[in-house]
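Need the bound structure for 2-hydroxyethylsulfonic acid, inputs here:
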Amino acid sequence: MTGASDHRTAFITGATSGFGRTAVHAFLAAGWQVVATGRRQDRLQALADASPPGRIHVAAFDIRDAEATASMIGALPAAFANVDLLVNNAGLAQGTAPAQQASLADWQTMIDTNVTALVTLTRLLLPTLIARRGAIINISSTAASYPYAGGNVYGASKAFVSQFSLGLRADLHGTGVRVTTLEPGMAQTEFTLVRTHGDHAASDALYRGAHPITPDDIAGVLLWIATLPPHLNVNRLELMPTSQSFAGFQIHREP
Ligand code: NDP
Ligand code: 8X3
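Answer from helper R.:
Posting the output first, comments after.
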């Protein structure tokens, strides 16, 4: 065990829902202490209320706000400041329209959240992670590697995350800091509700009968990666539900 406290510290973004929220519970149960972030203060408070006393620090802010992110890190209580693991999980898709009809506002939101906020937070925490010989797990997606119609900027933002992770590995050579990109396929969370701007029927229809990945599945994988011996680095890990596989190329034919 290391640090000001007896527990290793995981910093998990997007902790109010889906993968992030379940990961917080899993890391706490495994003896870690956790910094949990998201915008929805009520959900963070519920997490704090359900956690062992003194083992969680919650912070509500919009991760796209670089100043708020920096202030939050600067204001971390001493017991939580020695971050051993950063899980860059906060992210979203917005829309499924083809590029020629997509909302520019949606595109900007995805780039600001999935790309700019992720690199900002990573840069701010790198000195601590290097000092701790810590680890970074970036949540990418199968959409980083497998394009699909309507995936445009979401897939591109996740391709950025995967490539940034590999670049970090190269830059952090010799520091002992481990970097992993986790690329899940279809998982049942609030992801589709957010993507469709609140269409419950569309979300239910996507997951019905498909036995998708669950947040528990992801939390278990995150914990496994984080607790591997320090000489082992998972570079990238692609995970799909068995029910999901690949389709062929689409072909447009002239009439
Ligand atoms: P959820 O919508 O359930 O969770 C997303 C989390 O991100 C929420 O906690 C949300 O918190 C947080 N978040 C989003 N925008 C912001 C913001 N501007 N500031 C702070 N926090 C933000 O989705 P998932 O759990 O599925 O998604 C987690 C990650 O996994 C994402 O990066 C997603 O792209 C990726 N992913 C998801 C897959 C899936 O099929 N579900 C598959 C592959 C990857 P709040 O709203 O409170 O701010
Ligand atoms: C989420 C998986 O297939 O909806 O990253 O893009 S997918």
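Comments: Residues 141-143, 151, 185-186 surround 2-hydroxyethylsulfonic acid (ligand 2) (CB under 6 Å). Strands lie at 9-12, 33-38, 56-60, 85-88, 135-139, 178-184, 236-239.
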